[in-house]
Amino acid sequence: MPLQYPRHSHPWSSLSYGRRRFLRASTAALTGLALTNCHSNLTPGSSDQKRLYIYTWANYTDPQITKLFTQRTGIQVIFDVFDSNEVMLTKLQSGGGNAYSILYPSDYMVAQMVKLGMLTPIDPDRVKGLQNLRSRWINPPYDRHNGHSIPFSTGTTGLLYHADSAIGQPQDWDFLWDHRQALSRRITLIDDMREVVGATLKSLGYSYNTNDATQIKAAYSKLQELKPHIAAFKTNGFEDEILSGDLTIAMAYSMDAMPLIRANPRLQYLIPRSGTSIWTDTLAIPASAPNLEAAYQWINFMLEPEVAAGMTERLSLGTVNQAALDRLSGEIRNNQSLYPKAEILANSETIQPLTPATNDLFDRLWTAMTTS
Amino acid sequence: MAIIDTLRDRLRPAGWLWPLTLLGPAGLWLLLLLIIPSILILDISLIPGLRLGQPQTGYGPGNYIQILEPVYLAVMVRSLGFALETTLLCLALGFPVAYWLALRAPRRWRNLLLVAFILPLWTSSLLRAYAWVTILRPSGLLNELLTSLRLPPQAWLNTPMAVLIGLTYSFLPYMVLILYASLEKLDLRLLEAAADLGATPRQQFWRVTVPKTSPGIAASCLLVFIACLGDFAVPTLLGGASSMNISRLIYNQFLGPTRAWGFGSALSMVLILSVSLAIVLLLKYGNFTLRKASHTQ
After folding, report:
1. Residue A190: its H or E element
2. Whether B213 and B102 share a structural domain
3. Which among A176, A192, A370, A372 is the top mutation candidate for probing chain B, defined by the most B β-carbons within 10 Å of its own β-carbon?
4. Which of B125, B143, B255 to mutate to test the interface with A (most CBs of A within 10 A)?
5. Which of A88, A108, A215, B29 is least surrounded by Cβ atoms within 10 Å, i.e. has the fewest?
6. Same domain, B262 and B215
7. Contact A86/B255, CB-based, under 8 Å?
8. In this structure, is residue B290 part of a structural domain?
9. Are residues B93 and B14 in the same domain?
10. C-beta neighbour count of B203 within 10 angstroms
11. What is the homologous superfamily of the domain A25-154+279-333 according to CATH?
12. Residue A100 to residues A77, A123, A146, A148, A291: CA-CA distances in angstroms?
């Protein structure tokens, strides 16, 4: 739903398949609240070492990979899915996640959970393949030296647009404002206040993570100018509309944009010049994990270059694993949308937690904007 | 001794065990899943600024005062407006259908027609809302139809109109079902008597049919109103950039970055209380019309 703070969705390998997955992800979003209290089937005995309960994104469950893991280790994997970091955190905090031994929190959520003491420190001696991580992720800012998490995948937020539109091609976020009359009601933005307000902040030269109320209010008034021309705030569900040309431009996560570009080559993906948000999803072990042994086996399995390459390719993710990257085809490796050059990302940032007062301000502004 | 006799009388199994056995399971259900959770929500709502994972900060009405801020009041008014409009639309569309089904349709087709009307409820409400996206979007079925009729295409999707269409479609079957049950019980002899006494069809309708079915009208309107107020999927999928409503606002407080459980609980309490108030009014109103109706007989 969700639906607030939905982060990623799922790939669209083909349209009908994609639509089915969209509905699954939406269902996860719309029932997020109900699911947070639903854990009746998740009370394994402590002696049950042949089962691994994983709590992950609605589209990170790759059946092929799971089957291989079970064949190799004899451990049965049971997935539960969430659609936002906050849903996952809430479920764990309210005691509904005691069965899980593996979680997939994003960067800022790792920081938040470490602060709350909810993650087991990673024992580096039990992890194989850390030396394969790309340099940016060896000592990431959200979790120093990967003390509590193992980075798994990465991506950006950008603009997906029709390249043959008469309005021209965007270079930066300001394109939306400059052509708002021509693009009127042909724009969707992600349904996430941090992403939308953050991009506006960026277009004004401020940071995604500012706690300065004056800057945030300036971004809000700029956003108000665009608001009447925005068709909807949608993280998913815009796919059919952009493929059919009902939308000209959509703010989208890279992993959602790539399959659409494959489906319609006239679509292109842009990382705006003034900078965007870069996200990393990680593997982490909750403090309450009942099956540490299986958790480490899963982490090591996911770090295997072959597995990581296959999975990131199927899901249109960017891999953080150099050995996996080397195995990907040249076409994928040179895809500037998935593996942008460092200078393209020079102005980009990782979204970080804000102070409670700033969160309240965001919530008020967002509520006001989506009510009017 | 007299006291013991009274006690024995009072404790005679037949006296209290029967109702208890009958009401016990439902009572326990209500206690565990309605009353206790509501009390918990009330408790949380009275802790100003409570956030999950942070220490309690004392009791007070702070969260309720926050609801009075214009930005949140606007959400309430907007949600109530949508619910009210949908209810009226459902009534306007549903009453003729229910009337026809109950009083005019051939008897042997009646059940089949009723099933046909309820059939859409067998699919998920999410799927039905998404189906409307394909119909209402700029190049969707509705605009194709308009174009083929040489009419100018309109912007339907992502407008308040789309939310009204989606909500009305979602809840019309409930409206029809309850009205049908009410109209089916209408004593046709009353209409005949009215006709014998010189009432025109219009007078028969307004002076007999409507008063006799008013409890059904009130019940169906209330059900649709309450369901609309809590709906989440339709405004989210069809409402476009202005899709905020009270259920979404509550969701954001619990699962958004603010994690303001205290404020979210206060919003929930306001929703629970206003719905309860509506039900109390219905019970009173329903009884009133029944009494009035029996009085006139």
Report:
1. none
2. yes
3. A370
4. B255
5. B29
6. yes
7. yes
8. yes
9. no
10. 13
11. Periplasmic binding protein-like II (3.40.190.10)
12. 11, 18, 20, 16, 8
* The two three-digit tokens of residue A98, written as one number: 């005691």
Residue B57 lies inside a defined structural domain of this protein: no
> Is B55 inside any structural domain?
no
Candidate from A3, A185, A246 with C-beta closest to B251: A3
Q: Which residues of B touch A26 (CB under 8 A)?
A: 126, 130
Hey, what are B240's tokens? Answer: 């476009």
User: Is B116 domain-assigned?
Assistant: yes
Q: Count CA atoms within 13 Å of residue A215 on its CB side.
A: 17
Tokens at B18, concatenated: 């029967």
The dihedral built from the CA positions of residue B218, B221, B203 and B117, taken in this order, carries a sign that is: negative
Looking at the fold, whether B92 and B213 belong to one and the same domain comes out as: yes
User: Are B135 and B25 in the same domain?
Assistant: no
pLDDT tens across the length of chain B (297 residues): 566 676 666 666 566 677 788 888 898 999 999 899 999 999 999 998 888 777 777 888 999 999 999 999 999 999 999 999 999 999 999 999 999 999 888 888 898 998 888 888 888 888 899 899 999 999 899 999 999 999 998 889 999 999 999 999 999 999 999 999 999 999 999 999 999 999 999 999 999 999 999 889 988 999 999 999 888 889 989 999 988 999 999 999 988 888 899 999 999 999 999 888 888 887 777 654 544 444 444
Residue B285 burial by CB count (10 A; 0-12/13-18/19+): exposed, middle or buried? middle
Other CB atoms within a 10 A radius of the CB of residue B251 amount to 22
Residues of B with CB under 8 A from a CB of A: 51-53, 69, 71-72, 74-75, 78, 124, 126-127, 130, 133-134, 137-139, 155, 157-158, 232-233, 236-237, 239-244, 248-249, 251-260
Residue type (1 letter), B142: L
Are B21 and B142 in a shared domain?
A: no
Supply the range of the domain harboring residue B223: 65-295
- Same domain assignment for residues B205 and B264: yes
Task: Kindly report the CATH number assigned to the domain that includes residue B146.
Answer: 1.10.3720.10
Q: Which residue has the tokens 């079902």?
A: B177
Locate tokens 């891999």: which residue?
A319
Residue type, A140: P
Do B212 and B264 fall into the same domain? yes
Evaluate whether A216 touches A361 at the Cβ level (below 8 Å). Answer: yes
Number of domains in chain B: 2
* Secondary structure of residue A84 in the 3-state scheme: coil
Q: Which CATH architecture has domain A157-278+341-371?
A: 3-Layer(aba) Sandwich (3.40)
Please list every residue in chain A whose beta carbon sits closer than 8 Å to the beta carbon of residue B138.
241, 246
Instruction: Provide the ipTM.
Output: 0.82
Q: Nearest CB to A233: which of B78, B124, B241?
A: B241
**Residue extents of the structural domains in chain A:** 25-154+279-333, 157-278+341-371
DSSP B126: H
